[in-house]
Sequence to fold (484 residues):
Amino acid sequence: MAKRKRAPRTKKKQGINGNDADLIELGARRELFVDDYLIERMDNAQLRLHEPVPRNVAIEHEAPWEGNTSGYHTIFKDGRLFRAYYRGSHYEPNAPYKPVVCYAESSDGIEWYKPELGLVSHKGSMRNNIIWDGPGALNFTPFLDRNPKCRKGEEYKALGSPHASSQKEQAQLAFKSPDGIHWSLLSKKPVMDHTMGTNLFDSQNVAFYDPQRACYVEYHRDSIYPDGVRYRQIMTCTSKDFRRWTEQRLLDYGDAPLEHLYTNAVTPYYRAPHIYMGFPKRLVPDRRRSGHRPPGVSDTVFMTSRDGLSFKRWGEAFVRPGLQPERWETRNNMTAWGMVETANYLPTAPKELSIFVSEGYYGNENVRLRRFTLRVDGFVSVRAPLKGGELVTRPFAFEGGALSLNISTSAAGSARVELQDADGRPIEGYALSDCDEIYGDDLERMVTWKGRADVRALAGQTVRLRFALSDADLYSLQFTPLPD
Fold:
């Protein structure tokens, strides 16, 4: 597997106090507190996972070619247009099952519509939003290819699996499109098949181009059998040309418990693309709510990685099934691949993040795709109570002229920041007592010390940050150019 360029990097460098220190090359990158990468210690503070808030139903799958097993949604922004792709299908016992690939659009990522494309006939009519009904329609998952060397006519790519009845028939097919609407097979032969492992490829398998690794990255579902018991797991591989793929490897979750991970929804976070985020659907197969037919309940969990292979996975749910009974039906709460910025639900607040989660799967009615929102960078925060807590970072070097924070406090809460040398001594003029008190709720809050934000004299040196927090949540930081 191609090695990922770790960013930010850690290396040895001479500090401002003359000592060597393990140094993170932060540069001008945004850093999120989704793990302990930047954290050396916390006192009376902790990392807190936040939950997105349910909003409107974005898409309801009520068309005759859709129904109660529509799923595997993909959503991304393409210029000014928001695009959505998904499987249209309906399940009834002993009835034929033929999935199709459907398409929807939006101008704001909130309200969606289904255009009549006239591409595929359904029961004699071309008035539908179907874009593909051939092999691969089971879990067709496209993306906008940002490879600068992308071939003409392949600006959009996808992976999809045939609806196979045995493991030997399982495979991954590759697709191409010049416009995201008209699709064809990139190759007649599968780009992956069962000979590469125990792969079933029967879930939503995602791929994207990562400019930092200069390759395509793919994540798909596989299975492992500890003590003869099957567990659904996630594997990854890479490719330089989207045709030939490297050996597949299981993801590593450290000391996280073994659980069934049905999908993965892994994607680079657009504001900090060196961090991968995943939103697997976690299946608990031996549970069943009263009155539901098939066994198994699901929720969405959250995980992050800095190399694409080793992930920190939270045990607590990111999206719970909640109070809607239909979300406790088996195979629900599947998060779409992709997140987008949308106008805030609150009219005067800045933009927020939208993710999309399914409900009503296997129900008596249609699947719905519900929009959920959270603040920008708002997945995890360093939280301290009103009585106060502290965070001290590991040594790092930065580029830029000012420190910007994504931070929220209560009306009584506050935050202060101290710049230290590598040994933890306050730097003159940037001590905690020099920092102007921070309170409020801001995505880009400039830190000042006695009215001065300028930290250019410290750029490239080995420093630490000490945060004193009171009833506050710190989400991210970034060193930015000094405002004019």
